[in-house]
Write a structure and sequence with these properties.
Layout (H helix, E strand, L loop, with lengths): L11 H19 L25 E3 L21 H12 L1 H8 L20 E3 L6 E5 L5 E5 L8 H17 L20 H9 L2 H7 L1 H14 L10 H12 L2
Parallel strand pairs: 2-3
Antiparallel strand pairs: 1-4, 3-4
Length: 246
């Protein structure tokens, strides 16, 4: 397992780049004997409980090239807009899970190392749902740590922007960093996440009700139902690998 860090890009260029590297790696492996590249969220076993994830770092800039997330005068160097954005992402975290963790296998990684399980944010906090980096104007990012390796980067980016903008437009209150008091947990299954997405009016409106309806139906019929007849967890896990390893 290795980490690939991509350069910052504006808009849809970042998602195109993400798809290019995934497809490129799989094509290279296909041309080599005895090599397989997988982005399966949880491909191994309890012996190696680290999953495959995609972390999306977002920064917001005005037309003058100034960071709208950085504020040198603030104690934590984060602007009011950054706090609104964080609050929006926290509010919609449960629904975001459906798009960020789109397979049954993704939820094996819950409560495992390096996978967020509780809804909170923190500055350089490796277990937070939303990790914030605030070194300087050019190095201030809000990181969505929800997506698994099997997520669609276009849906991840679109839904993350929708959640963040909801916080900005409605000036949602951001809880203190690192606050886990009374913090809710993220969905424990794909079905639970899909139910959260269906009732999230903001994300449904932003993404389009037709897209969400088809996404949910495809996941229930083409994903969840595939494993309903598995008699043991071992059998189910073997089926998951057969479906998602490539």
């Amino acid at each position: 397992m290795f980490e690939a860090i991509l350069k910052p890009k504006f808009g849809i260029e970042c998602t195109d780049m993400t798809m290019n590297i995934k497809e490129g790696l799989m094509e290279m492996a296909a041309n080599l004997e005895h090599h397989v590249v997988t982005f399966m969220a949880y491909p191994l076993s309890e012996k190696n409980p680290i999953g495959t994830n995609i972390h999306l770092n977002v920064s917001l800039w005005n037309k003058n090239g100034e960071s709208l997330f950085y504020d040198a005068s603030a104690p934590d160097k984060l602007s009011v807009i950054a706090k609104y954005w964080i609050a929006g992402m926290l509010r919609h975290s449960k629904a975001l899970c459906a798009l960020c963790r789109p397979t049954v296998n993704c939820y094996r990684a819950v409560y495992k190392p390096f996978c967020p399980s509780t809804i909170f944010w923190g500055i350089e906090h490796g277990e937070a749902t939303i990790r914030v980096k605030n070194e300087s104007p050019s190095k201030t990012y809000i990181e969505n740590r929800l997506p698994s390796g099997k997520s669609n980067p276009y849906l991840v980016v679109a839904s993350t922007i929708a959640a963040g903008l909801d916080g900005v437009l409605n000036k949602l209150e951001c809880p203190p960093a690192g606050s886990v008091d009374n913090a809710e947990t993220l969905p424990h299954s794909l079905e639970e996440a899909l139910e959260e997405l269906e009732k999230d009016d903001v994300l449904v409106s932003a993404l389009g009700s037709e897209l969400v309806t088809w996404f949910v139906k495809c996941k229930r019929v083409g994903e969840i139902d595939l494993f309903k007849d598995a008699e043991t967890d071992e059998e189910k896990f073997a089926m998951e690998k057969e479906c998602h390893l490539l």
